[in-house]
Amino acid sequence: MAQRIVVRLTDDLSGAELPVGKGETVTFCLDGITYEIDLAAKNANALRKALRPYVEAGRPVRPSRPRPVRTRIAADPRTVKEWARANGYQVADRGRIPQTVIDAFDAAN
């Protein structure tokens, strides 16, 4: 026994079933939210016509590329403190290492 899956596209505005090849999915964005709506050609054209004045007055925006996050692998604090003491820096046995010492360590290594 075989199963057959039938997908029926309906116009989201009118609720009418769309014959194969007679409908389309329209994607649009408003207030940062992207929407998709399945429409018959007539309703898709009506949507485009209604939006035309706003589209013509607006300007296209290209999606921005996500900026790469630069990650830095931090050196072991003990190693940095040993290096700092060997190179004349005063650092406490416990606590945060001053940024100037970290920068000097990074520059030297």
TrEMBL record:
Protein name: Lsr2 family protein
Lineage of source species: Bacteria, Bacillati, Actinomycetota, Actinomycetes, Propionibacteriales
Presence of keyword rRNA-binding: no
The species this protein was found in: Kribbella capetownensis
Pfam families xref list: Lsr2, Lsr2_DNA-bd
Every Lsr2 dimerization domain range: 1-61
Gene3D superfamilies given in the database record: E3-binding domain, Lsr2, dimerization domain
Keywords of the record: DNA-binding
GO molecular function, one term: DNA binding
InterPro entries xrefs: E3-bd_dom_sf (IPR036625), Lsr2-like_dimerization (IPR042261), Lsr2_dim_dom (IPR024412), Lsr2_DNA-bd (IPR055370)
Domain Lsr2 DNA-binding: 75-108
